[in-house]
Each structure stands twice: as C-alpha cells, then as structure tokens.
User: Fold this.
Amino acid sequence: MNILVFVNHVPDTETKVKVGADGKTIDPAGINYMLSPYDEFAVEEGLKLREKFTGEVTVASLGGDANKETLRKALAMGCNKAVLLKDASVRDSFAVARSLADFAKELSPDIILFGKQSIDYDNGQVGSLVAEILSMPSISVVVKLEINDGAIVAEREIEGGHEVVCSTLPAVVMAQKGLNQPRYPSLKGIMDAKRKVIEERAASFVESKVEVLSMRKPPAKNPGKIVGTDVSAVPELVRLLHEEAKVI
Amino acid sequence: MKIIAFAEQRNNQFKKTAFEVVRAARTIADQLGAECCALVIGGKVSSIAPQLGGYGAAKVFVVEDARLEHYSTTAFAKIVAEIAHAEAADILFFPASAMGKDFAPRVAAKLDAGLAADCTALRVENGVVIATRPVYAGKAFVEVTIRSALKLFTLRPNVFSSGTPSGSAVVGKKEVALSEADFSSAVKEIKIAGGKKDVAEADIIVSGGRGLKAPENFSMIEELASSLGAAVGASRAVVDAGWRPHDEQVGQTGKTVSPSLYIAVAISGAVQHLAGMSSSKYIVAINKDKDAPIFSVADYGIVGDAFEIVPALTAELKRVLNR
Assistant:
C-alpha cells in the first residue's frame, strides 16, 4: 500500500499565545513547536496500515526548515520517507491544500492521512479540500478505520455518537483522538531518522482566498467571586446562578 | 445578492444550529440588501422546510431523495455546489457541526471559493463581511475576510442567536441528478451513544478533572450534570488516563465549547483546558487549591473539597429546580 501522511509543525499545547508585531500572527519567541497531535494519530495509522498491507509510508509537510524537526519525529516513529515542501509564505487552507494536492498527485497514493485539524489555525479544512481537488472520497474525524480489499468501513465522531461510513480506496482519511495509540519512537528509530535525508522541493505557488486582517487575545476576565470555602457556600452559589447569572 | 444557509437536520428534524445559521444569514442579508435563502437536504424533509421561514429565510430550497436519508459527504457537497451555482449565490453559510465541517470545504473546492471556518461573530463593514474566528483553540481570535467572489462561512453552534420565530418562506423543491458515484463516501449507520448529550451542543456542561482521584468518582459529576440537564465533560488528564471517553474532552486537543454555564470540578485549569472553555458565558470552579488557574477565569468559585461540595450542590439544585 502506498501511504501518504501530511503533517504540520505547530506550537505545543502549553503555549501561551502572544500577538506578534504585525498584529496578525503570533509572536514565535520562546515557543516550542511539535508535530500537531492529531497528525500523530495519522502517522500511527499509516504505520499500522503498512504493517497490515506492507508498502511504504511517505510523510510530507509544507513550511520552512523548522518543519524538519516534525518530519524527523515521523521518521523516528517509522515512516519510510520524508518530504519537505518548502514554503515561506503565509497561506490559507485553500493555498496549502492546492500545493499538497499537486504533490500527492505525483505520488498517486492509495490513502492520504491527515489529522482532523491542525491545532494552530483550527480550520480542519485541508484534508477535505485535498480530497475534492483529487476527486477522492473523504472521511473526517475518524475514530475507527477498517480496510479490506480496497473497501473502507470507518467510524467518525458526530454530536452524541458515531457515524459508520463506507467508502473505497483511494481516499482521504482525517484522524481524531481515539483512532489509535501513537507509538513512542524507539532509540533505533531515532538514530535511523537522524541519518535519513529529507527530500526538499519547492511548494507550488498558490494565492490565498482568506485574508487575516487582525489577531487579538480574548478580553481578560474580571476576577470572579469566591462564594465560600466549604459546603455552606452551596445555597449562595445556587442563588447566584439562579438570580444573578440567570443560567439555571 | 443572494445568501444561502444550509439548514442541518437529522431524522427529519432540524438541529438547533439550523435555526442559528438561517437567522445569522438573514441578519447579514439585511445589512447587505441581499436575499436570504435556506437549503435543506434529506430523505423526507418537505414537511419541516417551512419552519425556516420563521428564522428569516425568504425562500427554502428542498432536495429530497430516499438515498439522502443518511448523510453522504460527497452527495451533500455536490448538491450544495450545484444549487449555489445555479442560484448564483454570493455567500453560503453552514453550521460548524460534524456535518457542516465535513462537507463545506468540498463545496468550497468545487466552486473555487474561500471558506472561513468555525466563525463566532460576523459583521458587515463597507459592504464586506468580516468574520471573527478563534485560533489556537481560543487562545486568540482573528478577523478575516474572503477574497473570492463566492464566500463560505461555517458558524460555531451555540454562539449565534436564533431569535424568536416569526415570518414565513416560499418553499420549493430542487432536483439534483445523483449517480452511484456521488455516494462514494456515505453513512450506512448511526450509533448513538445512549442518548448522551454532547459537550459541543450542550447549554450547560459539568466537567471533572484529575482531582476526582478515580474514574468511579465521576458518578458524582454525572449526578450533578443530570440535575441540570447538562453534558458531562472531562479534562485531558482524565481522558488520557482512560477514565473518560475522548469525546468528552474539553480543551485544545478536545472540544472548544461556549455553553451558558460551565462547571469545572477538581480541574486545575491547564492552559490548554482554559483555551477550550473560557468563552463560556458563566464559569463555576470547585477546587481545593485556591491558587488553581481555573479561578482566574471563573465567575463564581468555591475553594473546597469536591467530594463534599458536589453532592451538596446536586441536592440543593434538585431542591431548587424541583427535579
């Protein structure tokens, strides 16, 4: 099976966001970057599919040299090949998807895996856009994936339950937490990943359609009221919720 | 100008978000001097379609087909794209629900249009729609505009008001030819998790964290939630520990929520959790540690032992609310 996984390099979840000098993006100073958590489930699923069907897992990422760190992590987990689609521009989901689709077309994969969303801009669009551009079916927010003879039966999370979705390869699948338990890279994996060459190519140029005008932090909340320090505060809390906040 | 709002239904009943999206579309249409239309797709939805008139739709387009009883990503994308094209729509609105988020990007790609996802506010400035959307799970917000002629927006559920119903719409059927290939990814079955309320849709959420010490102690959270008709949420720590299913996780690698009341029990308030819930209208924190970061976003707090306070709170709520 020819497996392609797209990954993104994002600020880790502990990051406290500061708006940068341009007023449109975050200040990268002091931020640790990592493989986007949902993409990690996608990498793991790619490796599991290779274990079942044999074949090759290619991992690719669009961005600057810093993304190599994330590609090395995916190599250390066990991906065969890594490709950096070099790009320094600010792109929206559409512009990212078009370049990824251009690259994917060359590779003609049986399956393309993504995380359900990148945890920086939280758009959750790129996988579906790539699928549409390549005329492939897509299944998003997947928590269970079974493939037999090219037929897919997947479960995706919806409000209050799961949808069982049927489809066929080639397809785009977007991973949700719960799909699997990502493996830790082995020491040997980490050593091998260091020696592997990350292929670099220029990402095709695509114009964005969505423009960011400004970025701001949410308004700071005023400090709340400590109603009490033991059970005796309970009636007062209920009264406040009922009469002041009017939410119950 | 023409705006079309996709009105989501399941089992031939509109979701609450359908009314929110139609009302938001009408509000923007009024500001732009545009016509507000709604679109409903399903197996048997003609009889519910007129309801959308009450939320501001002047016209409602109905696409009915037995094969559309269950959702299909590819078929829904094709239908919406064809109707948007035939109607020369300028703006499309969708709910940022599991369904809307799944197929709206495919509509955008088909029509070469930009899509602003998961918007929490909309305004019109000099005839241009400007959308606000959270990024980094709500640690920041961006304002965006769309450059393409056709513009798509998905709107976060539970944020936009659906208003009081009044008014009526002209309802008309639309035919879209669908072949077997248009159903290349299709739902064949829906598994409902025992009628459980989803945190993404709930108006009240009661969440528990690691301070509850053991998974069985969540029964206390469930009882409190049930006394309020609330959904149960969880912190990442307890989901990663396997105490609770991941669909309950609130925060940056879970769900970002904006209920009218969020009660955080024994949750210290890690950065990634706060990002996911701090836009809730009212926040209550119950925690032993007076310095826990959760108190910095809480409107009301009780510094104390959850094991004593939660059962007392449940009993008091039952008494006051008569449940």
